[in-house]
TrEMBL record:
Upper taxonomic lineage: Eukaryota, Fungi, Dikarya, Ascomycota, Pezizomycotina
GO terms of molecular function: metal ion binding
Region (Disordered): 67-91, 107-138
Compositional bias annotation for Polar residues: 70-81
Residue ranges constituting the CS domain according to the UniProt record: 217-306
All copies of domain CHORD, residue ranges: 5-61, 143-204
Species the sequence originates in: Choiromyces venosus 120613-1
UniProt KW keywords: Metal-binding, Repeat, Zinc
A Pfam family hit: CHORD
Domain of life: Eukaryota
Protein name: Chord-domain-containing protein
Coiled-coil parts of chain: none
Length: 323
């Protein structure tokens, strides 16, 4: 009887249970743009490269191999966490704020609110890239939009205004879940991620707009976590020029200037929620991100990174108490 092997990396059909099986015994790992398997060291950046990583173990086929959840690479319980400091039990101040460390009796710094009548900054959406009507499209060219794999068949494009169904924003991989930032659906399996239907419609993008010599200011996703001594910020910018990257730390402000390939640049300045010690701060440029370590001047928790985005939430540092 023909059966399908359940081992990851194999998944072949077989009739002989003694047949040799090449597979990955560990769980898949998706972390900050890199992809691989827990059982071997190979790490790649694209999905196609991930799918062809050679299996690292040899055994027998199995139809009931356990389904392995993707490895948690951040958050409570993760094994990859480099910062292991755990804060002592916090004190609760009169205004309900949790305070940590030796500065427990120091008042929470006041955040200066924007002046009345000041309009909020509007986030400008980047115009959707379109093909130049005067540029010919070679037959068989695939659409460049995420989630659309349509190939150009050589016919007229005059009536294709809403034929492309795609995802206008970037994919998200976070602690095992996968999806796109433009829609709410999240899945666990990689195969399911590839099948998430697009959430927007427009014209196909077979060629793309011609490259401009002008520098383009782009936005990059950022995230942070904290201990009771530091705030660690990740700015997800790929292939940053290390020789020209500039980061300036001030007591209450962060200035970042990151030049990237194709005349792109990420440049931002914003006020920080709490005070930092500029002399104790540092940063490093990695392949897929920039990591900044901000040294707190006290043991206070930061509910947000920016002082102009205060949410009113209280963030606990360290492990939650258990009964």
């Amino acid at each position: 009887m023909t059966q399908k092997c359940a081992h990851k990396g194999c998944e072949k059909t077989f009739t002989d249970p003694e047949e040799e099986c090449h597979y990955h015994p560990g769980a898949p790992i998706f972390h900050e743009g890199q992809k691989g398997w827990q059982c071997c060291k190979t790490r790649v950046l694209t999905f196609d490269e991930f799918l062809i990583i050679p299996p690292c173990s040899v055994g027998k086929h199995s139809v009931d191999a356990p389904t392995l959840a993707p490895v948690q690479t951040s958050g409570p319980g993760s094994q990859g966490q480099k910062h292991t400091e755990v804060a002592p039990p916090p004190e609760i101040s009169l205004d309900g704020t949790e305070v940590y460390g030796q500065q427990q009796r120091k008042a929470l710094p006041k955040v200066t609110a924007a002046a009345p009548g000041t309009p909020p900054l509007e986030k400008k959406e980047k115009p959707l890239e379109q093909d130049d009507p005067g540029v010919p499209v070679p037959p068989g060219a695939k659409c460049k939009r995420l989630g659309c794999e349509v190939a150009y068949d050589g016919e007229s494009r005059e009536d294709e205004d809403e034929k492309c169904v795609f995802h206008p924003r970037a994919p998200i991989f976070h602690e095992g879940s996968k999806g796109y930032s433009c829609c709410k659906r999240r899945v666990l399996e990689f195969d399911q991620f590839l099948k998430i239907p697009g959430c927007a419609t427009n014209r196909h993008l077979f060629v793309g707009a011609p490259k401009s010599d002008e520098e383009e200011l782009v936005s990059c996703r950022n995230d942070f976590y904290q201990t009771y001594t530091d705030v660690i910020v990740s700015i997800f910018a790929k292939k940053v020029d290390k020789t020209r990257a500039e980061v300036q730390f001030s007591e209450r402000q962060l200035d970042v200037d990151l030049p990237m390939p194709d005349n792109k640049r990420y440049k931002v300045s914003f006020p920080l929620y709490g005070a930092i010690d500029p002399a104790g701060c540092e940063y490093k440029v990695l392949t897929t991100k920039i990591e900044l370590k901000l040294k707190k001047v006290d043991g206070l928790s930061w509910p947000t990174l920016r002082s102009d985005e205060v949410s009113g939430e209280i963030i606990q540092i360290g492990k939650p108490a258990t009964a």
